[in-house]
Specification:
Two copies of one chain form a homodimer. With 308 residues, chain A is of the alpha/beta class. Chain A has two domains: 2-114 and 292-307, ATPase, nucleotide binding domain (Nucleotidyltransferase, domain 5), CATH 3.30.420.40; 123-288, ATPase, nucleotide binding domain (Nucleotidyltransferase, domain 5, 2-Layer Sandwich), CATH 3.30.420. In chain A, 38% of the residues lie in helices and 22% in strands. Chain A contains nine helices and twelve strands. In chain A, a hairpin with a 4-residue loop joins strand 2 and strand 3. Chains A and B meet through helix 7 of A and helix 7 of B.
Chain lengths: 308, 308
């Protein structure tokens, strides 16, 4: 079985043909150039896809992971914050028409958790929570082996779990969403807010990566921010463990590259928020697909449909 | 189709034979007398069940709703806080042996939400959240038509969603669980804590019922507590709407008898915590099964199994 996984991002479109063992047989990458409009993006995406499909025989399915609100059933992007003008665009149909290969479209956070189930640390599990810590915080949930979609397909917005009702205003209009604390944006903001208390800190540009690197080196501002971020994640994961009784929680996205220092703190604060009867029922891990998580996620959507 | 629904409570065991139209054909009730031990409770439950089954022909299934941690698959009560000594007791098997009718055992909060799907306000819906506000706060979730159980069958602990990480200590060991605020116990405690600020209040015994009745009459202490309780529910329901994208949320349990004054406040504070893109995707209602919710819930577990 061979599936072409397409990871549609705001800057690049990355794609690869993947087999069921998670081997990448060929890959391709083009710029998204959103400003050129939907039709041109579709063209560039299909051209790159066709190039790959012609190179490797036997691709039976294309899976696309896209940010935004996705109508999986009809293969439509309802809207996507970083893709202006993409309102109810039939992305799956357009790609299918050009490539002559059946296409499945899915939200990128749902694709992430499915990718972990097929090719990542959650292989063989049926009850999985995926959290991506990037510019925002995304989420996907597999419960009893099935992707949680919700009635209108807009569920699993785990970044908008409220971890502090009196917390920071979130882009979504709420206060104290997990995303305000555990996204790259949130980490950056927290570091700026706390810097006056830590004049000796070496943090200069306040990117999430710099803050996490600093924390690893023992920089006290970095350590402080890491603690706040991990507490917020611990609060959210505590609630999620009580709700979903998952076997495994996989954390991905750019911020997860912080590695062990993040993981050990998240584990500690999560345990503080979990009932005894749930201790030992879950593990928390970092994704090891990081760079290709988007491609594997997209491909897994294809594999999942072939299998079902 | 006729199912015998048994609502196992700490004080009483209520049961009735229900048909698929939600009509009660016969009912019975015995004291639980937990202190007499598992064997005697089983005996009393089966005797009462047999009496009913002999009265009404054609009962094809028994559904039991039980508090505590339930192993649905094996029909076992793992443990139940108010049933001391009930550790891994094979309740389903014991009742089946005596009644000669096939038995399904389910957690009472799961039974509640299933009862709403079969016989209550969520009839015909596939994505449903049920919350029971009683001595504690229980929860059940149906997503894509299926009961959410979690990997070990202990999921949907909606009372232990953390609504304030710096909140009150909860019986579960956490801080700021929904249960600390929105249970009858929580309401009673909140009223006692705030009473000094409201010397003119007429609230005397501080039961949840009295507090809610007082709120309805405009008593300022009652109104204050109602507001705090509704805010906590709004925070939890906001998160749950983002997670499950449900069509309907049904609130039951003794506290829900407070009626419209509770419902209107919960609606208001929930909306404050819900993203615009989820507005108009959900309704919030109070259960109208109240007195028989336990029986209907238990019966629905039987009907669900017959149907599947």
């Amino acid at each position: 079985m061979k599936v072409l996984g397409i990871d549609l991002g705001g800057t690049n479109i990355a794609m690869a043909i993947v087999n069921e063992n998670g081997e990448i047989l060929a890959r391709n990458k083009v710029e998204t150039k959103v400003h050129e409009g939907f039709a041109r993006v579709v063209e560039r995406m299909s051209d790159a896809a066709i190039e790959l499909i012609e190179k490797v025989n036997g691709v039976s399915k294309i899976g696309i992971g896209s940010p935004g609100s996705i109508d999986h059933e009809n293969g439509i992007v309802r809207f996507s914050p970083n893709f202006p003008g993409w309102i109810n665009v039939p992305l799956a149909e357009e790609i299918e028409k050009r490539t002559k290969v059946n296409v499945s479209l899915e939200n990128d956070a749902n694709a992430f958790v499915m990718g972990e189930k097929w090719f990542g640390k959650a292989k063989g599990y049926t009850d999985i929570i995926g959290i991506t810590l990037g510019t925002g915080v995304g989420g996907g949930v597999i419960t009893g082996g099935k992707l949680l979609r919700g009635h209108d397909g807009i569920g699993a917005e785990l970044g908008h779990i409220i971890v502090d009702p009196n917390g920071y205003p979130c882009g979504c209009g709420n206060h104290g969403c997990l995303e305000t604390m555990a996204s790259a944006t949130g980490i950056s903001r927290l570091a700026k807010e706390w810097k006056e208390r830590y004049p000796e800190s070496t943090i200069k540009n306040f990117s999430a990566k710099e803050v996490m690197d600093a924390a690893r080196m023992g920089d006290q501002l970095g350590v402080k921010v890491l603690e706040i971020v991990s507490q917020s994640l611990g609060t959210a994961l505590g609630s999620l463990i009580h709700i979903f009784n998952p076997q495994i929680i996989v954390i991905g996205g750019g911020v997860s590259r912080a590695g062990d220092i993040l993981l050990s703190n998240v584990k500690k604060y999560t345990r503080e928020n979990v009932m005894r009867s749930f201790w030992n029922t879950y593990e928390i891990v970092l994704s090891d697909l990081v760079d290709d998580a988007g491609i594997f996620g997209a491909a897994s959507i294809g594999f999942e449909e072939i299998e079902s």
